[in-house]
Amino acid sequence: FIAKPCALHVGIEDSGPYQAQPNAILEKVFVSITKYPDEQRLEGLSKQLDWDVRKIQCWFRHRRNQNKPPTLTKFCESMWRFTFYLCIFCYGIRFLWSSPWFWDTRQCWHSYPYQPLSSGLYYYYVMELAFYWSLMFSQFIDIKRKDFLIMFVHHLATIGLITFSYINNMVRVGTLVMCLHDASDFLLEAAKLANYAKYQRLCDTLFVIFSAVFVVTRLGIYPFWILNTTLFESWEMIGPYPSWWLFNGLLLILQVLHVIWSYLIARIAFKALIRGKVSKDDRSDVESSSEEEDVAAYTKGPQGSCPSNGASCVNGHMGGSHWAEE
After folding, report:
1. Cα–Cα distance between 233 and 235 in angstroms, integer?
2. Structure confidence at residue 309 as a pLDDT band (50, 70, 90)
3. Burial 213-240 (b: 16+ CB within 10 A, else e)
């Protein structure tokens, strides 16, 4: 009701990917043998069907794209995530601003575990937990991406941390962890929205801001503020106990994931400096890189560019400014 009209307003078409021309022989190869035929197979199919090799390449490209969600669907999904991340971050900042442990992390362990659970803190936890459970299930029906396993581990660690900290009444430090992670997520979704709408300059600007916030929060504030209080201040004030090791183990897993993602973001930023704009997201779906190579090869051929539902053959994006989803 909200995201779709916004998408149409910025010029995103309400249409699916270009449908491949029905062909029983190519469909059998696609389903039973390979989605990416090699040169030898392409030559054989070309002789069998009396089609040009470029035409067969374009058919396989369109056929692969039929399984991908259209840009409109991805725009709506990103707008939903942007709205949630922004709202929950604002709620978290508003709640923590008046909390003593936001200004002094040692307050997280005063009188532990006999700390009251306010209604505001309870709702904060329930909303975050419900959202991450939804992400856990939805990733199995979304397009498969290169970082599927990393995201699966991340969601498991996050849900485990939220649940475990709630059961053990470590909710004070838990709110700090959640708010810190929400600080950069809405910026990434905003950059995606700008990319889908083909506002390249805005996309680049938002991505630069996101990169800076991500690195500062995940590689700076998180280890020196969050891990410092969970590893050292808690040890000093309440001492280690059996669940202390599990809790900090999950937090350290998150830190490892932060380093991996920072590396991927740095690669994108490096490419952006070379090309002058944000390139393809290295966490994108498995298909996208191959799609771009197909498009590049096809557009150099004698037949020119192939038809599609938008401006190019890559998910309705302009080939030069394509930036795939996370």
Report:
1. 5
2. very low
3. bbbebbeeebbeebbebbbebbeeeeee
Q: For the residues 189-197, what does the mean pLDDT come to?
A: 91
Please answer whether residues 290 and 283 qualify as being in contact, where contact means their C-beta atoms are separated by less than 8 angstroms.
no
Cβ atoms of 237 and 109 closer than 8 Å: yes
* Whether the bond into 17 is cis, omega within 30 of 0: no
Element (H, E) at 270: helix 242-275
Average pLDDT over residues 116-125: 92
Peptide bond into 307 cis (omega under 30): no
Six token digits for residue 19? 């449908």
Length of the chain: 326
Per-domain boundaries in the chain: 18-66, 71-275
Residue 145, strand partner residues: 285
The residue whose two tokens read 């905003």 is 190
Nearest Cα to 101, choosing from 123, 84, 118?
A: 118
Which token pair is 270?
Answer: 């490096």
Identify the CA nearest to 83 among candidates 182, 154, 13, 5.
Answer: 182
- Point out the least confidently predicted range of 78-92, 180-194, 269-283, 304-318: 304-318
pLDDT at 278 over 70: no
> Could you read off the pLDDT of 15-68 as tens digits, one per residue?
666 667 777 888 888 778 888 788 888 888 888 888 888 888 888 887 877 767
Instruction: Kindly tell me the burial class for residue 50, based on how many C-beta atoms sit within 10 Å of its own C-beta (0-12, 13-18, 19 or more).
Output: exposed
CA distance 229 to 236: 9
Nearest to 268, CA basis, from 289, 255, 282: 282
Phi/psi for 145 (5° steps) reads -120, 165
CATH class, 18-66 region: mainly alpha
Spatial distance between the Cα atoms of 158 and 129, rounded to a whole number of angstroms: 8
